């Protein structure tokens, strides 16, 4: 069945390694016939959640920045893939800041059911993305009927544009193509 797939790419730098994973995932999902949108947080103004919880009454955030249109896309997508650089063994701050700002969706009817996490880091060991996976799992656990459906980790990439020929690219494409 054709699904709406939203890919959110969090790295702010040109030539981003995790963005290359995001593009491959999106391409795979597109080839499989899904409706896919890839958005980057790079050109977005995303301010910190203030914790006022006004959104729990009104359904919308008091902060006027670029988050509201992203939330519209997010709540309508059945499948969401997040791409992040690993920063200090965790999700990058800009992705965490965005996740905090999804508070208007908390406790409401949302379409999303499956989450994927794509990450890139300089180190190669298996433990490197684990806290980021745990971080995204924490967000997932706060929403009903949502699961971590898959992860791809590209280790050994430090500078921008280092993903050429990396095996994680094909893993990300295959994961996108396998979305059901
Ligand atoms: C603030 C910061 C923290 C980082 N922390 C880690 C780390 O804990 N482990 C690691 O292997 N690489 C770390 N890196 C390296 C990045 O994960 C790596 O350069 C990655 O390829 C960046 O992905 P991007 O090109 O998508 O931004 C860090 C880089 C920065 C700038």
TrEMBL record:
Pfam families: FMN_red (PF03358). The keyword Calcium does not apply. Keywords: Flavoprotein, FMN. Residues 4-118 form the NADPH-dependent FMN reductase-like domain. The keyword Magnesium does not apply. PANTHER family: IRON-SULFUR FLAVOPROTEIN, NAD(P)H-DEPENDENT FMN-CONTAINING OXIDOREDUCTASE YWQN-RELATED. This is Flavodoxin family protein.
């Amino acid at each position: 069945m054709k699904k709406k797939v939203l890919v959110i790419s969090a790295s702010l730098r040109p030539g981003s390694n995790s963005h290359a994973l995001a593009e491959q995932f999106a391409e795979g999902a597109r080839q499989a016939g899904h409706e896919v949108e890839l958005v980057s947080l790079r050109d977005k103004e995303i301010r910190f959640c203030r914790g006022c919880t006004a959104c729990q009454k009104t359904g919308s955030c008091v902060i006027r920045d670029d988050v509201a249109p992203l939330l519209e896309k997010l709540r309508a997508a059945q499948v969401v893939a997040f791409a992040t650089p690993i920063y200090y063994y965790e999700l990058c701050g800009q992705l965490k800041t965005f996740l905090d700002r999804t508070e208007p969706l908390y406790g409401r009817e949302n379409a999303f059911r499956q989450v994927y996490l794509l990450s890139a880091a300089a180190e190669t060991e298996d433990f490197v993305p684990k806290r980021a996976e745990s971080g995204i799992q924490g967000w997932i656990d706060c929403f009903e009927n949502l699961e971590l459906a898959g992860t791809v980790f590209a280790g050994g990439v430090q500078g921008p544009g280092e993903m050429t020929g990396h095996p994680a690219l094909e893993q990300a494409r295959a994961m996108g193509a396998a979305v059901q």
